[in-house]
# Entry
Amino acid sequence: VEICKRLHQRNMLAAADGNISVRISDSEILITPSGIAKGFMKPEQMAVINLTGEILFGKPSTERLMHLEIFKICPKAMAVVHAHPPTAIAWSIAEPKLEKLPSNCLSEVILATGDIPFVPYARPGTEQMAEVLVPYLPNHRALILRCHGAVAGGEDLEEAYRGMERIEHSAQILATAKKLGGLHPLPDEEIKYLYELRKKIG
# Structure
């Protein structure tokens, strides 16, 4: 509930958009409900599903298959945050040929996430939302969903939330730079160094 409030306050959730899930046991997932304004959600409105998608309690998000796919492929994932960060989504609409957010311009993107790829568009609420994630998992914990939103996974809920913050903050910086005079990549040798440093950091 607290994470939903934070996302709403930062304009990354509107109306009943978005969904969050947390692994509460080896087989059970706590997940936000469908059709509820997440910024004003109450704890008792949460739903519970298992890893096979069976509904154990409540009315879970219609986009739960996306969450389940991340939990299945990423054994370290304990939480998933799906939100609608405006600038990140705008990048995916305005730049259909880009494969990822321009990480070569911003050291923090490389160090914090490696890269933030653009995942091909999938119809919301369908199995395709899970299928399009597969090529990017488990190597990426922060992803932009074309013409839709973004998703971030983490080893706890705070990490997943910070991933969503990183996505939107980076997208805002790069969009502002583009308006002010253009995107100018770091030197190749510096980019190589940053990727190697990320591997050392882990």
Observations:
- The chain is about 40% helix and 15% strand.
- The chain has a mean pLDDT of 97.
